[in-house]
Amino acid sequence: LRHNMQKAKVTLVGAGPGDPELITLKGMRALSSADVVLYDALIHDEILSFAPITAIMVFVGKKKGICQFPQDQINVLLVEYALKHGHVVRLKGGDPFIFGRGHEELVYVESFNIETEVIPGISSSIAVPELQRIPLTRRGINDSFWVLTGTTRDHQLSADIQLAAKSNATVVVLMGMSKLSEIVQLFIHEGKSEMPVAIIHNGTMPDEQFVLGVVSTIVQDVAASGISSPAVIVIGEVVRLHPDFVKHKVKEIIGS
Length: 256
Known about the structure:
Helix content is 34%, strand content 22%. It is α/β, with parallel strands linked by helices. Strands 3-2-6-1-7 form a five-stranded parallel β-sheet, sandwiched between helices. The longest helix has 15 residues, at 71-85.
């Protein structure tokens, strides 16, 4: 046990927003030295291939309605695998500290005096809109952006969304598709029915889909499109900078 304690280590690695090429070089190097990999849902197979062929691969992901491993059990597994096998890489989608419970895992592991390391990942909250040519900030349009979870631990809509709806900030909501109707009602209540919205499904991936609209109609637009989770919701004037919005505006000018 003493020998294993000396080499035991847990590295939290952010895998990025989905596209396997968007994991960092440092994340790839950590994976290449892993004895065990505990990975979440939505991790691309190509990213998993960076781990040694001898590494123990353990799926501990959560999907809507499916929770194979409760968080407390994941915490215990991290410690047990580190003490028994050595270097454990905890591979999490996006960034491990953005609604990923990475810090909870870090604190638990460190309570056993096990060495830890954190390797940030590119968050889908920034990368997904960016690849659709939507800047979260733009001089002269907004001064800030909010990144919020659509659903809190007790499955309620975050109260912070109501505060965000009052601001001029770009609002990015993760894990919020099941609450979309409630979210848009908050913006309508603030007189922002014509605020542009983008819903981006499977962002950064080859099968990415998106819907553009305004607050008052986006629920119907999404229903007509058939897209669902996982998706990033972007609400704000910067959405008008999306190329399709720009083309539509040009057509309106030419038509008039």
